[in-house]
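idk why but the lab printer keeps eating my pages so im just putting this in chat instead. protein + zinc ion:
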Amino acid sequence: MSDFYKKILENNKKWVEEKLAIDKDFFKDLAKGQNPPLLWIGCSDSRVPANEIIGAAPGEVFVHRNIANMVIHSDMNMLSVLDYAVNALKIKHIIVCGHYGCGGVKAAMGNESIGIIDNWIRHIKDIYRYHQTYLDSIIDEKERFNKFVEINVKEQVYDLAKTSIVQAAWKSGQELSIHGWVYGLNSGYVTDLDVNIDSNEKLDNVYQLKF
Ligand SMILES: [Zn+2]
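predcted complex ->
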């Protein structure tokens, strides 16, 4: 077995001991149930660990991660997580957190075929096309990449608001806000993009569902 593999098993034992030293009922209490106020939709990138960067303890964040933090309205995995978070856990906030330097977003800007992931990245390419005039006007490639990361997050925030799950929750008067963040790999800080949606009124008319 590799040293890394052995190390992570040992780390787990140490972690349990540390938690129990502070609170002997830590795991006993967690086992009773969860009531997290937040759903996190982030990138699978190993450098953006949801709980760690916001100082959240076990039980505080319900997490969904995929390549480039996408909200694809036909993705059963995402929809199941969203439905459970909104309708069973009654979470109050959803944060879509992208990050600068995202490999998925970078790949979407290029033309190289990487394999089956091309079909996932297609969704990000569509977003480039929606904003092509603006993005193509940014001469500096790094700057264009950064802006594309931000635009992608904003689009995913709106895509969440377009889902029947979120709109039905708003219709029933449930408190639910959706936010967009971008994490800086080289600073550790998140930037709040200030797209805060708590009703379907900001959506284009064609997406507004009547119940
Ligand atoms: Zn990423």
